[in-house]
Amino acid sequence: MKARVALAAAALVSLAGCSGSVSLGDDEDTHQVEVRGARTGFVVEVPEAWGITDVWDADTCGSVSYLLREGSSLRLVIEAVPASCPDAGVDTQIGNGFHGVYRTVDDVPDPQDRESVDTDLGSATVFTQKYFECTNSCEDWSEPVAIITLDAPVDVGYPTLVVRGEKETLSRAELEEIVATLAAPYVPTG
Question: What angle is formed at CA 103 by the lines to CA 91 and CA 110, rounded to 5 degrees?
Answer without folding.
Answer: 50
